[in-house]
Amino acid sequence: MKAENFLPDDYRPAEDEPFMNERQLEYFRRKLLNWKGDLLSDSRDTIEGMKDGTRNIPDIADRASEETDRALELRTRDRQRKLVSKIDAALRRIEEGEYGYCEVTGEPISLKRLDARPIATMSLEAQEKHERRERVHRDD
């Protein structure tokens, strides 16, 4: 029986069930797919808006303002594109049976962390250690 057949809409992963069981994996798979769908939809809307928004604006201040808005929108879309690739990587980890485990320690990542950031690849402790090391090297 597939997980999607018995996953209720109000299901939330719980600490008292086996870690990364079929229901939890399906829950996170759906969460990631929905997030990816929203990002791709926003991206399509932006592209359509930019196609429609290409016009000749005679006032130089208005034109500069519009160019700034477009540049900001493109930067946002670039960040979202990178996010989509992280979502794809998380979906691959689900398929490969590696999802939910810290890539540094191999320990389970907390369900609370995964629910808040389903693309997480490190436990909170490993992430904090990584960020401290980054800060030290950045200050050099």
TrEMBL record:
Q: Name one Pfam family in it.
A: DksA_N
Annotated Gene3D superfamilies:
DksA, coiled-coil domain (1.20.120.910)
Q: Which residues form the Zinc finger DksA/TraR C4-type domain?
A: 97-132
Compartment list: Cytoplasm
Taking the first listed entry, what is the main subcellular location of this protein, grouped into a coarse class? cytoplasm
In the record, what terms sit under GO molecular function?
zinc ion binding
Q: Does the keyword Cytoplasm apply?
A: yes
Zn finger residue spans: dksA C4-type: 102-126
Among the GO biological process terms of this entry, one is:
regulation of gene expression
Q: Which GO terms describe its cellular component?
A: cytoplasm
> What residues does the DnaK suppressor protein DksA N-terminal domain cover?
24-94
- Is Hydrolase there in the keyword field? no
HAMAP family membership:
DksA
**What is annotated about its quaternary structure and interactions?**
Interacts directly with the RNA polymerase.
Name this protein carries in UniProt: RNA polymerase-binding transcription factor DksA
Species: Wenxinia saemankumensis
